[in-house]
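Two folds, back to back.
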Amino acid sequence: MGILAQHVPSIEQLKPGLVEIIEEAGGSKQFFLSGGFATVQPDSQLSINAVEGYPLEDFSAESVRNQISEAQKIASGSGSEQDKAEANIELEVLESLQAALK
């Protein structure tokens, strides 16, 4: 999703993934969000409301791979249904993070 001048006002749900902010000076910053909402105002101002957001450089590919492996063990194990459901949610977020790191 890109926001340009005169963008139509809208509200969009954000799934876990990468957000890149391109600055007027030409630089950019990348953040991984666990999900949330993006709201475009009538004056093309963008607001992002997210539960969690971290600079992409805070993550290592190796650490994410290890966390995915652990979550997969729990999701396919013999634990409670709640533990399995939580592990599946964790897997969705971690797999999105892993894709963003590539």
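---
second:
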Amino acid sequence: MFERVQTFIQNLASRQPEDEYAPGDPRVAFAALCFQVMEADGNVSADEQRMLRDLLRERYQLDGEQLAALIDAGREAGHEAVDYYRFTSDLKRHLDEEERVELLGILWDLVHADGERSEMEDHVIWRIADLLGVSARDRVLQRQQAAARQPGGDAGGE
């Protein structure tokens, strides 16, 4: 799982300087969407936080201060947002179709990080997928694959 995520995030990182988190930065958009998904069920677990921190640290190769700055920028952008359009439009400009599908898989991995999946998380990912132009088929397939990657994974129905 981390190999796929690493490749995805490295592609994003290679497109922007590592020490800048300006508006429109796809790294901030990615982190903000992660926060939107993690917060959808009203409970951000330690497992979800750890997974996000690990993803961003390893894939963007950030040190403590840079990592903290990206996490703060993503959290703040996510809290200021009134919808997902700002982030999905930033990412659509930087990602091809395959990378957008892959992004959904990463978001599903975050959903499953705490071992639970809620209707609110499903709804948030459905909206993000729609705005990214990812088909319902690909969205469901990514959800099933993320569930199957979890210990005792269940790739059950929608």
